[in-house]
Amino acid sequence: MDDLHKNIVLFLCNIVNKNIDFRRQKSKIKKSKNWSYRLGKQKGGSETNSLTEVLKEELNCRTVFTIPIGNGIPVFESVVVTWVIMAVLVVLSLILTRNLTVMNPGKKQLLLEAGIDALRKFFRGILGEEGDRYIPYMMTVIIFLGVSNVSGIFGVKPPTKDLNVTLALALMSMFLIEYCGIYKKGLKGFFKSFLDPIPVMLPMNIMEVFIRPTALCFRLFGNILGGFVVMALVEFVCPAILPIPFSLYFDFFDGFIQAYIFVFLTSMFMSETME
Amino acid sequence: MTSLIAIGAGIAALTGIGAGIGIGLATSKAVEAIARQPEAESKISKNLLLGCALAEGTAIFGFVVGLLIVVMLG
């Protein structure tokens, strides 16, 4: 019985190693700008090296082309994928909002109205009446995140797998949170609210300003990257049927839940600041 | 050296314990609350999702730290 187990494990290890070697050969050409490659010499034994290579490959964001201004501005894969998603969303929204009528709306329009209404109700419930001016931004973010988290199934690297993308989104959220606090209470009231509920909490309140975007950024990044790495490992072991349920969970369920949670937390923090 | 790195990454993965316990507790309480008051289900599940997301954050940080250990040092 033990021998059988050992054989199966060895067999799996062989498959994984072979695939990793194959991938390493393929990816050696594209590795000119690998950030982790520049960090220094490799240490450690050969057993973890193949795993490390895979992880690096997943973490690595390829440079697609360089804009020739000054020293050259590298354009990463995630940026290009973001452009494609933006183009698709813009074209889709242009097509879907054409020929809207008040009388006798078509099926398409009814569906659209139901979706927008549900989203608006959801944000209205968290932000309250005064938060109406922020609803279009939040809807844009949730649609963009939903599409980009799922974009992994089309064979591209999801842009949210890149830490820079999630960091940018989290910074935008941070500025929006502080802005809506200032807009609601005025500059004086905003700074006074740092002393709530007691003045001793001042350092905590200041730290919270920076901890919120960090948590938002790493939550999204970690979830998407974790799902991506697990999917890659599953595809090494069994590329045929096994990845389908995993893909349903990691790509669809997790992707939508994370998009939902990102905007949910942002609007929660906003309503907290506006109180 | 390699085994030490592996042990470090493994210790970073222990953050999963806290997240697991936290999410389990939250879910059990939410199920109790829904059983007691089925009409408040939407509110309860909204708060449950928020709590789960926050509790899960620690596990994600552990994962990111473990990954960085393996990638940077391995």
From TrEMBL, chain B:
Pfam families: ATP-synt_C
Residue span(s) of domain V-ATPase proteolipid subunit C-like: 7-69
Family matches, as SUPFAM superfamilies: F1F0 ATP synthase subunit C
Primary subcellular site in the record, as a coarse category: membrane
TM spans (from-to): 6-27, 48-73
Record-marked site positions (Reversibly protonated during proton transport): 56
Annotated family: Belongs to the ATPase C chain family.
Physiological role: F(1)F(0) ATP synthase produces ATP from ADP in the presence of a proton or sodium gradient. F-type ATPases consist of two structural domains, F(1) containing the extramembraneous catalytic core and F(0) containing the membrane proton channel, linked together by a central stalk and a peripheral stalk. During catalysis, ATP synthesis in the catalytic domain of F(1) is coupled via a rotary mechanism of the central stalk subunits to proton translocation. Key component of the F(0) channel; it plays a direct role in translocation across the membrane. A homomeric c-ring of between 10-14 subunits forms the central stalk rotor element with the F(1) delta and epsilon subunits.
Name by which UniProt lists this protein: ATP synthase subunit c
Organism encoding this protein: Blautia caecimuris
